[in-house]
Automatic annotation (TrEMBL):
Family: Belongs to the short-chain dehydrogenases/reductases (SDR) family.
Keyword field: NADP, Oxidoreductase
A UniProt-annotated Pfam family: adh_short
Name of the protein in question: SDR family NAD(P)-dependent oxidoreductase
Signal peptide: none
Keyword Nucleotide-binding: no
Length: 230
């Protein structure tokens, strides 16, 4: 039996990932910062709710203790993320940057630090970092790609950091499969439901990485078509 934790699982891609992994037989801890919405989401899918605000040391440590006490963890999916302000570049502030990096980047470090001890006790330890093609140098320069049409300095650079954190942690922890998934432009609240993919399509790469059973390459960046360029 594989036990999986998903951050930001109360809606959007995290919720659909939980639905698909429960269907695939995983025991899924659905992390959410809002207890009422998190419990409701877990009840709807047959998951287990755990309170998890990824920006809080105390909340992340509490979730790690809860999951350790219940038997441990095999797969960690760092999915929670924010877009940050949709301001013009000239209007962005340092506080905006701290907020976006705090949730999208610093929280990945916090989560990995808290959960690596549990993952090391697993026979199929896996981390999936939900990144974005918006953080791919290749995609944002390719006029054929949707990622080249947006200007969003903080969000894009935060996701470039997530992808590189994936590579660096994969080198640091060779005993864990650590890979990054780009969902692709998917209709969720994140983009006012303007994304062109369904949530099922948007979770293909995440589910693929989460169901490899602790084998396969590490330190890679994939989308639903396969290995993606960084
Ligand atoms: N949708 C896309 O087109 C797309 C494309 C590429 C990458 N992504 C990435 O995919 C991930 C999921 O995005 P989505 O489209 O599903 O967005 P979403 O519908 O807005 O969901 C984001 C989730 O993250 C949670 N979250 C935000 N801050 C949190 C915090 N401090 N602690 C715990 N949870 C927190 C939200 O919780 P609340 O409900 O409490 O706010 C929500 O559950 C993000 O990392 C995003 O960058 C999305």
């Amino acid at each position: 039996m594989t036990t999986t934790l998903i951050s930001g699982a109360n809606k959007g891609l995290g919720y659909e990932t939980a639905r698909r992994l429960i269907e695939a037989g995983h025991t899924v801890w659905m992390g959410a910062r809002d207890p009422a919405r998190g419990q409701q989401a877990a009840d709807a899918l047959g998951g287990r709710f755990v309170h998890l605000d990824v920006t809080s040391d105390a909340s992340v440590a509490g979730a790690a203790q809860t999951i350790a006490d219940a038997g441990g963890l095999d797969v960690l999916i760092n999915n929670a993320g924010i877009s940050g302000p949709h301001s013009q570049a000239a209007e962005l502030t340092a506080d905006d940057a701290l907020a976006v990096y705090g949730t999208n980047v610093v929280s990945v470090v916090r989560m990995i630090g808290a959960f690596v001890p549990l993952l090391r006790a697993s026979s199929n330890p896996t981390i999936v970092n939900v990144t974005s093609g918006m953080g791919s140098f290749a995609f944002v320069h390719d006029p054929e790609r949707i990622e080249s049409k947006f200007n969003s300095p903080l969000y894009t650079s935060s996701k470039a950091a997530v992808t590189m954190l994936t590579v660096q942690y994969a080198k640091a922890f060779p005993e864990i499969r650590i890979n990054a998934a780009d969902p692709g432009f998917t209709a969720t609240d994140f983009n006012g439901n303007t994304g062109t993919q369904t949530v099922k399509e948007g979770t293909d790469a995440i589910v693929e990485l989460a169901t490899r059973g602790g084998v396969g390459p590490t330190g890679t960046f994939i989308d639903r078509s396969g290995v993606a360029p960084f």
